[in-house]
Amino acid sequence: MEQKICLIGKGNVGTSLLQLLNEKKEEIMQKFHVDYKVIAIFEHDGGLINKTGINLQEVLNKGKDFRELSYWNPGIKALKELGNLDANICIETTPTNPDNAEPALSHIIEALNNKINVVASNKGPFYLHYEKIKKLAQENKCSIRYEATVASCVPALSVKEGLIGNTITSINAILNGTTNYILSRMTSEGIEFSIALKEAQELGYAEADPTLDIEGYDAAGKLVILANELLGWSRTIKDVKIKGISHINAQTIELASVDELVIKHLAIAENGKLVVEPRLIEKDSPLNISGTLNVIELQTKYAGPIILIGRGAGGFEAASAILNDMINITIKQK
User: Fold this and answer.
1) Which of 24, 43, 47, 294 could cross-link 151 (Cys pair, CB 3.0–4.6 Å)?
2) In 266-280, which positions are buried (b, 16+ CB within 10 angstroms) versus exposed (e)?
3) How far apart are the first and last CA of the chain?
């Protein structure tokens, strides 16, 4: 079975996906009898198109100089080319725009309108326009999957498929590795917020402008996606009560420690409400994880708490989640 792939966004995640597809081509063929052919790779300033299949090794060998390839088309836009590609799956990995979800939202809508299945790692469209996207996918009888939007390779969304006979009633989670790293360092070393933040930036865990992370917006967007998918809600990021961690200091951390408590930046969905804010939890709580890890505690009606822990960010982590989604879409088509 041949599946033609269009990739939009050749950043860290997109490039990692190309490497996975190149390395695992034979394994995927043997296990799933699927030949994934990448026929287009788009960036903001043009794209590579080869409808018989792009040589991925050639692209990877070029690194950041992939625009030097003879079939690079400067100036072309994914939005205008999607309808002409005859692609089976569109992969959307452009950076998240928290204000209006563009250009990812338009890419997803255009793909669905052309009856192309979609896999995305871009959160924005799903925490701003969840219902619109879901409805459009249903109308066009397309699959749309977005596991990588929440916790990369941690199966935060697909766990729902393994809990069909159960009911998820609430969510408590740590969904941002940057804030968790900062609070972990403040707790273990007694350092101030500004020092921990600078350290996170030097290590590449935090952006030069860390606002979306430290003020809670990244975690809030992920929480919306989790709640809509696992709890059956229909919310947007505007429905989340959000408070960041920039006001927390070493003294606050120390006072919590005296009472055998720690401060964690939690994302909570329960009793119809969405909240992202610092909370006091016991030191032996399963939510007390260190470093850049993510943790998701799902409270279930018939089996109590189910806990997922893992790395919630990274190129290959997100790429493996995208590949999982691609394979699941393909299997369901057979």
Assistant:
1) 294
2) bbbbeeeebbbbbbe
3) 9
Rounded CA-CA distance 171/156 in Å is: 11
Catalytic pick among 4, 10, 37, 222 = 222
pLDDT at 10: 96
| Residue 141: count of CB within 10 angstroms of its CB | 9
Q: Describe the chain by its helix, strand, coil percentages, rounded to 5.
A: 45, 25, 30
CATH 3.40.50.720 is right for the domain spanning 2-153+315-333: yes
pLDDT digits (tens, 9 = 90+) for 26-43: 999 999 999 999 999 999
Instruction: Specify the domain boundaries for CATH 3.30.360.10 within the chain.
Output: 160-311
Asked if 257 contacts 248 with a C-beta cutoff of 8 angstroms, the reply is no
* β-strands 72-74, 273-282 pairing: unpaired
Give the DSSP letter of residue 292.
T
Q: Which amino acid, 107?
A: H
Give 2: exposed, middle or buried? Use CB within 10 Å, 0-12, 13-18, 19+: exposed
What is the architecture of the domain spanning 160-311?
Answer: 2-Layer Sandwich (3.30)
CA angle 317, 175, 293 (to 5 degrees): 55
Burial class (CB in 10 A: 0-12, 13-18, 19+), 45: exposed
Encoded amino acid at 108, one letter = I
Per-residue pLDDT for 313 more than 90? no
The token pair that represents 24 in the structure block: 């695992």
To the nearest whole number, what is the mean pLDDT of the chain? 95
Residue 149: both structure tokens together: 């939007």
pLDDT digits (tens, 9 = 90+) for 189-219: 999 999 999 999 998 888 889 999 999 999 9
C-alpha separations of 25 from 19, 36, 146, 219 in Å: 10, 8, 22, 34
Catalytic-residue membership of 10: no
Six token digits for residue 54:
């792009």
